[in-house]
Amino acid sequence: MAKVPPPRFVIVQQQPDKRPYIWSAVGVAWSLSLVAAWFWSQSLAAPRLPKLVAELETTQRELRDRQNQLDRLAQREATLQRSDQISRAANKQVQGSLAQRDAEISDLRADIAFYERLVGATAPAKGLNVHSVEFQPETGGTWRYQIVLTQNLNRGAVSNGGLQFQVEGVRGGKLASIGWDELHQKPKAPIQDYSFRYFQQLGGSVMLPAGFTPQRVRVSLRGENAAIEQHFAWKSGVTVTGET
């Protein structure tokens, strides 16, 4: 009888894999440990929780108080800076006003000194007055005039008004008077304004007609409370040459 060879394959019954069960058990144990740790931490922290909440509220309140203090200090600083700016501006304005007043006083003293040299320190008090009238020939046939007005009756008072004059003389062997409009060669020539406390020098240029010999000047002043006419001799005694 022939010998039967051993089988090439052996059937072995496989045991079930236990690794998934092991990992599941580990996961469950880890989760339970987390839950246990949470409950344990809660049991430890719970007694201090109200105190921590109170401390947090106190800290927040202190922070709000500090912020309010900072806001008030910032507002106060801004107010002080604004006050300082206003004070500096006011001080600068006062300094400017004082400098302007000093300049006005200096000018007034200079005017008084000039006035005293002009009319004399011992001159009697007078109201509005024409102190002097002068004419000088200019190129082109015009005459440059300078008229000085004074007053020392009301010291410090301002005299306001207007000035006109006419020149009287001889033309063609007859007496003639050259009025303000003709002297300026324009109809309704505006009067010359004056405004002063002690004195004022007024000047301008006029044209005398050809063939006219000036002899005197009649000056008229019209002010708020004054109407004055004064006559002055024409000292040069010249005859204006040219065509008549």
UniProtKB/TrEMBL annotation:
Record's keyword terms, sorted: Coiled coil, Membrane, Transmembrane, Transmembrane helix
Residue ranges of coiled coil: 49-83
Transmembrane segments: 21-40
Keyword Transmembrane helix: yes
InterPro entries: DUF6776 (IPR046703)
Protein name: Putative transmembrane protein
